[in-house]
Design goal:
The protein contains six helices and five strands, in the order E-H-E-H-E-H-H-E-H-E-H. The protein is α/β, with parallel strands linked by helices and about 130 residues long. It comes from Pontibacter indicus.
């Protein structure tokens, strides 16, 4: 079981459904939801001793600060976070360019389409088991 998950998405219904799937699957001990990238960043302590989430489910299209902006903010910390924190894009985007762009971020371990489901959770588990 994963210890801590952050769900970052401005869509309340999507957050509700994602949280419901995570809870019903007993996927994580703690689930934290944030409606903006800034809110999540404020709660993501990047100090050496602070506990990190094991997993972030990140929407791309959000007002003010997008998922891309969130990932860009983490760029300076990528080497320290690699292997400790996995990001999975969870989006309604079907653009191949978004999927391709997500591959340029070392912390991004996968690109999933909304809504989150059991198959997506199985993919996350499998991907996290076989870290590169």
């Amino acid at each position: 079981m994963i210890s801590k998950v952050f769900v970052i998405d401005d869509d309340e219904i999507s957050v509700y459904l994602t949280s419901l799937v995570l809870e019903e699957a007993v996927f994580a001990r703690e689930i934290y939801t944030y409606s903006s990238a800034d809110e999540a960043l404020a709660n993501l302590s990047l100090t050496e001793d602070a506990p990190l989430p094991d997993l972030i489910l990140l929407d791309l299209n959000m007002p003010i600060k997008s998922g891309w902006d969130f990932l860009d903010t983490l760029r300076p910390y990528e080497n320290d976070l690699k292997g400790k924190l996995d990001v999975f894009i969870l989006t309604s985007s079907i653009a191949d360019s978004d999927k391709d762009r997500s591959r340029t971020y070392p912390l991004v371990r996968g690109f999933l389409h909304k809504p989150l489901d059991e198959a997506s959770l199985a993919h996350i588990r499998h991907t996290r088991t076989y870290r590169s």
